[in-house]
Design a protein that fits this description.
By secondary structure, the protein is of the alpha/beta class. The protein has two domains: 118 residues, Rossmann fold, CATH 3.40.50.300; 72 residues. It contains nine helices and seven strands, in the order βαβααββααββαααβα. The longest helix has 28 residues.
């Protein structure tokens, strides 16, 4: 079974992923996959450099230079996504297959852009983890030592809950008083999904 997990910063996605891990699941962090490919995939680096000349030198991607280009233009960002997303999907599939050969049968794909990059199509179920805006902001503030104003700006810059609710199989509302309570809820929730499969 492959479970796709998505959700905004501070919602409790990490807690949900840890519950799947406790159930014997293998976690694939798509941010880590992407950064690994930026370092190790010659093919992806060559494609990036063809579209954005000068951002790769000595086989290294200058991520600051690349970011300065793509975050100024939606078209450039879309072009970068069109290059990187297929590589991320293929590497995710490769990692799943490798772990399947070792006997693992439960996987969680951790990706905020679960649907935009095509990873949602690999999943048997998709789960959106959310929490009230103020609670998310407080968690981000405590974790990253930033102001409430900046935490709210970060939350507001992300996709709205409705985007995910419409696309995901399930929504997990994190209205719990403690991480431990939410963790136990997630454990039972995912255990039921896995046993039904």
């Amino acid at each position: 079974m492959i479970i796709g997990i998505t959700g905004g910063t501070g919602a409790g996605k990490t807690t949900a992923l840890k519950a799947i891990e406790r159930l014997g699941g293998f976690i694939i962090d798509c941010d880590e996959v992407y950064h690994s490919l930026l370092k190790n995939s010659r093919e992806m680096k060559e494609e990036i450099n063809r579209r954005f000349p000068g951002v790769v030198s000595d086989d290294t991607v200058d991520t600051k230079k690349l970011g300065a280009i793509v975050f100024k233009s939606e078209e450039s960002l879309r072009d970068l996504d069109n290059i990187t997303h297929p590589h991320v999907v293929e590497e995710t599939k490769r990692r799943i297959e490798k772990e399947r050969q070792r006997g693992c049968g439960i996987f969680a794909i951790d990706a905020i852009g679960l649907f935009e990059c095509g990873l949602g199509a690999l999943c048997d179920v998709t789960v959106f983890v959310t929490a009230p805006r103020e609670i998310r902001a407080k968690r981000i503030m405590n974790r990253e030592n930033i102001s409430m104003e900046y935490a709210m700006m970060r939350i507001d810059s992300q996709k709205k809950d409705e985007f995910f609710r419409k696309r995901c199989t399930y929504t997990l509302e994190n209205n719990f008083d403690s991480e431990k309570s939410f963790s136990e809820y997630c454990y039972g929730f995912f255990n039921n999904i896995i046993r039904r499969d």
